[in-house]
Structures are given as structure tokens and as C-alpha cells.
Amino acid sequence: MRTQVIGIVLLGTALASCGKEEPRSKQYFDAHVDEAREVFAGCQDGSVRGNECNNAEMAVIRADAKARSKRFVGDGKAYTPR
After folding, report:
1. Superkingdom of the source (predicted)?
2. How far apart, in Å, do the first and last CA atoms of the chain sit?
């Protein structure tokens, strides 16, 4: 009887730990922008759902803004007319 109870408790613990994975963070997607773009594309077509959509979208927006800023500002050297 005692071994059955222990077995049931262990089985319950194992099944509970097999739950959903925690969504990847904004910092993860900031470091992996290509993956963030893939996840965001999946969110737009409906194949991906959940909190990862928000995190991936924010990472894509930040990466695009950074690239746009770099195109506008350039390499950071001051412009001196001749």
C-alpha cells in the first residue's frame, strides 16, 4: 500500500512537471532577432500563440528601430562640410 502511494505521488509530480514551457523572454529575443522574426511571423499567421508573441514582437520592433536609427545617424562620426 505504501509503495502504491509513493508511486502515485511520483507519477503526479512527473506529470505536473511536464506542463507548458515558460515563454522565452524579451532579452532572449533581443539576442536572437532572427528567431524573434520567425516567431512573430508565426504569430501573425496564427500558428503561434501566447506570451512569446508579445516578447518576439517587441524584440522585432526594437531591432527595426535600431537599424533605422543607424541608417539615419550613420556610423556616429560628425558631419563636417567642406
Report:
1. Bacteria
2. 92
